[in-house]
Amino acid sequence: MTKKIGVGKAHSKIILMGEHSVVYGYPAIAIPLKTIEVECYIYPSDHSIIFDFDDTLSTAIYAALDYLGKTQVAISYDIRSEVPQKRGMGSSAAVSIAAIRAVFDYFQQSVSDELLEVLVNQAEIIAHTNPSGLDAKTCLSDEAIKFIRNVGFEAIDLNLNAYLVIADTGVHGNTREAVDKVAASEIDNLPFLSQLGLLTEQAEQQIIAKDCQGLGQSMTAAHAFLQKIGVSLEKSDHLVSSALEEGALGAKMSGGGLGGCMIALAETENQAHKITDRLRKEGAVNTWIQKL
Q1: Alpha helix positions (H), the chain
Q2: Which string of b and e fits 137-164 if b means at least 16 CB within 10 Å?
Q3: Residues spanned by CATH 3.30.70.890 within the chain?
Q4: Phi-psi region for residue 74, left (φ > 0), alpha (ψ -120 to 50) or beta?
Q5: Mean pLDDT to the nearest integer, 157-162
Q6: Taking Cα atoms as reference points, which of 149, 3, 102, 123 lies closest to residue 56?
Q7: What is the pLDDT of residue 127?
Q8: pTM to 2 decimals?
Q9: Strand 261-266 and strand 250-254: pairing?
């Protein structure tokens, strides 16, 4: 059976701590951004989709159709996304989740989170060659996620009664280039990566203790090490400095780097809005506020 329209939704994510050091065996902490969403709509069509297997969305729709044995069914799709691409916010994973949910909804079939994750990661391989699975896991989760390479995932209870400001630099991030850049000077960077790893472990304990002041300090310290390994940009650094001047408890770039987003921790909603206003004045092309 089919419906006249299939609908699927998903939310975004952001890395709180652990960029790049996660590649070397240290933990990373990612946060779901439940108010920044993607919606996918599936409609009947007179023509079958021509699948582009260099495209994550197309691959995700094919994976869902293939699982259901419906690859010859003529459909069309429409994506409406609040998640900017190439900013470290899990755009491709969120789009894939929404698309797969929409396909299953169109055919009035249920899909478990476990199956959804498998199908999303199939599509993510197209986008990222060797994805960690962290984007998919966090975009499927309502809780913060700790990830350790070759170990796995663990949910973290994030209840800080604080606010996270996310600001888009307007510059496309490039995770692959950034990872290669860090690896090219690996021997020199190992001490900085070790410190980043320790700061992430420290941040987890600060989250458990609800120590927002300490967490903010860890975030700012992490940004300094991300600068040292060469993955931040002048605009990211400027927005971080501006957030701190405006009273943020801490601030740092987020994601692979060489562009993308920065984040700032605020103690109150009012402070978060003040930081947001300042970041917009200083050149952020978009901002969001997430309650932690």
Answers
A1: 56-68, 91-106, 113-128, 134-139, 175-184, 186-208, 212-228, 234-245, 269-281
A2: bbbbbeebbbbbeeeeeeebebebebbb
A3: 159-291
A4: beta
A5: 91
A6: 123
A7: 56
A8: 0.89
A9: antiparallel
Q: In this structure, how many other beta carbons lie within 10 angstroms of the beta carbon of residue 291?
A: 14
pLDDT in tens, 280-290: 999 999 999 99
Let me know if domain 159-291 sits in CATH 2.60.40.10: no
12, two tokens? 């975004």
| Residue with token string 């021997």 | 187
Supply 279's token pair.
């970041």
Tell me which architecture the domain covering 6-154 has in CATH.
Answer: 2-Layer Sandwich (3.30)
Could you tell me where in the chain the CATH 3.30.230.10 domains are found?
6-154
Q: Which long-range contacts (CB under 8 A, 24 or more apart) does 111-120 make?
A: 111/64, 113/140, 115/67, 116/140, 119/60, 119/63, 119/64, 119/67, 120/60, 120/93, 120/96
